[in-house]
Amino acid sequence: MSTHETVSRRTFITAVGATGVALGLSSLATGCAPQGSDESQALSNTSADDVAWTDEAEVVVVGLGAAGAAAAVAALEEGATVIALEAADQAGGTTALSGGLIYMGGGTSVQQRLGIEDTPENFKAYLTKAVGPSADTELLDIFCTSSPDLCAWCIDHGMTFDGDADETSHIVETPEGISLMYSGNERAADYASIATPAPRGHAPSGGAASIIDSLLQSAGAGLDIRFGTALSELVTDDSGAVVGVKAEGPNGPVAVRAGKGVILATGAFTNNDEIVENCRPEALSCRGRTAGPLDRGDGMIAAQKVGAAVRSTSRMTVGAHVYMYEGLPKGALLNHRGQRMLAEDWYGSFIGRTILENTLSGCFVIIDQTMYDEAMGCPYAAGLTNITSADSIEALAEKSGLNADRTAESIARYNEFCRTGVDEDFGKSPEYLIPIEQGPFYAVSVLPQDFSAFFTLGGLKIDGSARVINLDGEPINGLYAAGRCSCGIFGEYAGSGSSIADGLTFGRIAGQTAATR
After folding, report:
1. Strand duo 441-445 + 364-368: pairing
2. What is the pLDDT of residues 29-49, one digit of tens each?
3. Which CATH architecture has domain 321-451?
4. Alpha-carbon span 155 to 202, nearest angstrom
5. Alpha helix (H) ranges present in 220-316?
6. Which CA distances in Å does 504 have to 69, 92, 390, 472?
7. Hey, where are the domains in the chain?
8. CA 130 → CA 123, 333, 346, 424, distances in Å?
9. Beta 201-202 vs 178-181: how paired, if at all?
10. pTM of the model as a whole
11. CATH class (in words) of the domain with range 38-98+207-317+455-515
């Protein structure tokens, strides 16, 4: 490649504490009509007849996170010439901010080596429930059936998964020597009843940076990368086909002609407040965002200006990662009525979704002194900022604005489950069923504004070939998309690594499809 800067590994876990992983807002399946910022609204598509081209390639990739890197490699391997435009000064996108998991299943070679039984059918059974009924079933089927092949492709392109499996619990940061772990809600009672639990969070050695570095190293000198070059608009011909892009580079405007296709991999619109406000305003109450500064929706907006349809733009994930805090998943999560509402060992996006759908006026994890000490001893304790304490459960409830009698009844019922080892209400794992009885007692607020981060899931509507679909339900010639600027398999968020896996799956497909057009 002509330019290559290594992406240093960073983490989803920021000063917000538990706000760095995925989330699960429920909303209407259809996309709202996003209205961009003034900067984004200034974009407008240009006719090819009005463009003085400065560069040309058969395939132009816009954005070099996991989806864009996969698209570029796949296109090169089909023999196409490729120019990649990246607005930042290095590759990686939001993938570089992540924990570096790739959510793959169905019997991958890594699962097989570690003795984990899984099939594409079992994988799809879990994901169908996890992402919910609004997901695109065609894309979900492709994602599940192609997952073992995706794993092999990742390995063929330099990623290594030589470690062991950890089947004990959710893992916040991958321990040394672990390559496979649970990273979703697979073991929760409602999910385990329809799909045999299997760990599917694949952790490549070297983390998130290795995903990008491995792909770009595979691309080699054949990939022409233009860093600091941001998309301005798409260029169309008289038939409406996309034939190139205009962009702003470090030395001024550029216009790149695409002989076969343009692939958009520009990321989410998490940092575009105007679109988020229009599509799902509750998300803006979250304490943080899981996003890079360039996640503004520019690719989605540019595509809409040439007639692209969007899907599920009101779907956003809100991560309430109770399990990150040691003692917290042993407590009881109560809603504003003082009633328990879920199993506290659920994956964070499922907790965030449930909180957002059921209570916004008060939501607390009730713990005792022993659990509090455990939580405060974890490295993310600084993220717990809204905590109330009292010497009795009743006094704690009153200080927290909860009904004292109902709260005491809920804790008494929970403690009885702990003594019997069976959570009759929500099926919480026995390892977390610890009675709340050693005062003083604490109420930790897990409302979005105190505890959570969000990112957007919806975006451009694509088909199984990663072609962008227009408002009439037909593919736009020459235009493809992958990653979080498209909707992909979501629905709701399924677990850590599912967004990266979605980007790799359909980025790879986009590159292959565009290059062979």
Report:
1. antiparallel
2. 345 655 444 433 444 567 788
3. Alpha-Beta Complex (3.90)
4. 11
5. 273-279, 298-304
6. 8, 13, 49, 27
7. 38-98+207-317+455-515, 321-451
8. 11, 21, 12, 22
9. antiparallel
10. 0.90
11. alpha beta
